[in-house]
Each structure stands twice: as structure tokens, then as C-alpha cells.
Specification:
The protein is an alpha+beta fold and 276 residues long. It has 2 domains: 127 residues, Diaminopimelate Epimerase, Chain A, domain 1 (Roll); 123 residues, Diaminopimelate Epimerase, Chain A, domain 1 (Roll). The chain contains 6 helices and 18 strands. It has an 18-stranded mixed sheet that branches. A hairpin with a 4-residue loop joins strand 13 and strand 14.
Length: 276
């Protein structure tokens, strides 16, 4: 008997061109799959996150797994999942998608220029003293430290400092946080701020483009610059750009995505049918 399969995609998010931005796995299911299997798939694929989506006209749900753990919120894999559902005509692109998730309902819509607009909960960081080992692990002068729901935000003097960070990842993994976001004002006139994101504690040395971190970066820079709509760039080796807007207790994140590969993956024997 042929094993049941699910649709499997590799998508580059927060980019309009292939092989840039942040790669994500997307698995489209008809029913929830066992957690150990989802974790094993994420580890096998090796992306910073893989999204597992149950999608139907009656409603959608989404979960995200890094290679080592389930995460509570992920922007780039949500963008990738919405892109897949519309691009593959699994859902009507004229209608927004409301994903049920660990972080509440996340709504995605398609803009006229083909970008995905995501509505996420705001994460206003609170100024704090740096935890033990953080500054030493980063190895650069620090102007300010703040703590968000998931991550630490570390502001440094300038874009050159952001680009030059070479953290001691083993030491950074000892800091109790999902990740550490290093940020500064941008040099370019068409950008407002830049960042890089390190999360060795959850198996990610450096994340190419981190949508969920911008739920924290957006209100931080909106307060500093006195402006609610901002353009950002994450300056990893792959790089990526996104637009952010603060709206009350929500943050809008806008970005493009590109499908790189399409395929299928065998489901566990006990699992039912899926899109395949």
C-alpha cells in the first residue's frame, strides 16, 4: 500500500528573489500530526523553523518547530505558509488567512504588490540590565539592553558594529532566552534600522531574517524615531528586508516570499490522509 503523504515546500521568506531571505519548511496537513514526527521532520530539514499547517475553508492552524524545539511564534515561516497556501491555490488569495496558533490568531493578507501582510501581537521590550554573560558573549560595546517576551534586544552604536558582531555562541547559549537581537539605526536613507539575530540556545546560530523579533524591534524603534511605519533590514549573510507598522497592540509585518522546491513527505503510518 502506498504510504500517505503530505505536501512539503522549501520557501525563502522576506525576499523577492530566490536564495536570499530566510528559508523555511512548510508542511501542509489535513489533520494534526504527532509532535515527535513534526520535531523529527524539522530536524531533518534543518531550517531555522518549519511550519506545520492544517488548512481548510473551515479554518487554519499553524505550529512551528526549530531543529530542536517547538517555538511559540515565528514570522518568516508564517509568511512562507501563507504564500504556499495562496500560490498553490489551496486557499483563495482574495481572502485573508486566520491561523490559530500558540500566540493567538495571526491574520495574513495579500497586498496588491504581492507581499504578505501579517498581523502579529506587539512585544514591547522593557529596559533592563544585561544578564550575566550576554555582553561578554557578544564582544562589542553595548548602548542599551531590553527584554521582550521571547528575546533580549541589544542596541549598539551603529550599523558597522551590527555587521561586525562575532558572538561566542557557546557562551551565548548559556543566556536564558530564546534569542538575542543586536540592532542599530540604519545608515541608508531608505532604511530605519538594521539587526542580526542569534539563538544558539534553540539550535540556531544565526537566523537570516526573524519576523517575530520585529514584533519587539518595531515598537522599540517606533518610540526612538517617533514614527509608526518603518523599513528594516536584517544583515545576516543571506539578508532580508521587511516593512513594519505599529498599530496599537499589534504589529504589521510585510514581506515577499519565493517557493524554491515542491515535494512530498511520507506521514507516520498511524496518520490519516493529507494534501498530497
Amino acid at each position: 500500500m502506498t504510504p500517505a503523504t503530505a505536501r512539503l515546500y522549501h520557501v525563502d521568506a522576506f525576499t523577492a528573489v530566490p536564495f536570499a531571505g530566510n528559508p523555511a519548511g512548510v508542511v501542509v496537513l489535513e489533520a494534526a500530526a504527532p509532535e515527535p514526527w513534526m520535531q523529527a521532520v524539522a530536524a531533518e530539514l534543518g531550517h531555522s523553523e518549519t511550519a506545520f499547517v492544517v488548512a481548510s475553508v473551515d479554518g487554519c492552524s499553524i505550529r512551528w518547530f526549530s531543529p530542536t524545539v517547538e517555538v511559540a511564534l515565528c514570522g518568516h515561516a508564517t509568511l512562507a505558509a501563507a504564500h504556499v497556501l495562496w500560490d498553490e491555490r489551496l486557499l483563495d488569495a482574495a481572502q485573508p488567512i486566520a491561523f490559530a496558533s500558540m500566540s493567538g490568531t495571526l491574520t495574513c493578507g495579500l497586498t496588491p504588490d504581492g507581499a504578505v501582510r501579517m498581523d502579529f501581537p506587539i512585544d514591547v521590550p522593557q529596559a533592563c540590565e544585561p544578564p550575566a554573560g550576554l555582553v561578554e558573549a557578544l564582544g562589542v560595546p553595548v548602548l542599551a539592553v531590553a527584554r521582550g517576551r521571547f528575546d533580549y534586544l541589544v542596541r549598539v552604536a551603529d550599523e558597522t558594529t551590527v555587521q561586525g558582531v562575532r558572538p561566542d555562541l557557546e557562551r551565548l547559549a548559556g543566556v536564558e532566552t530564546r534569542g538575542v537581537c543586536v540592532t542599530a539605526a540604519a545608515d541608508a536613507d531608505d532604511l530605519d534600522f538594521v539587526s542580526r539575530f542569534f539563538a544558539p540556545r534553540i539550535g540556531i546560530a544565526e537566523d537570516p531574517v526573524t519576523g517575530s523579533a520585529h514584533c519587539m524591534l518595531a515598537p522599540y524603534w517606533a518610540s526612538l524615531l517617533d514614527r509608526d511605519e518603518l523599513r528594516a533590514a536584517q544583515q545576516s549573510a543571506r539578508g532580508g528586508e521587511l516593512r513594519v507598522r505599529v498599530r496599537g497592540d499589534r504589529v504589521e509585518l510585510l514581506g515577499h516570499a519565493v517557493t524554491i522546491t515542491r515535494g512530498s513527505i511520507a506521514l507516520p503510518v498511524s496518520h490519516g490522509p493529507a494534501h498530497g
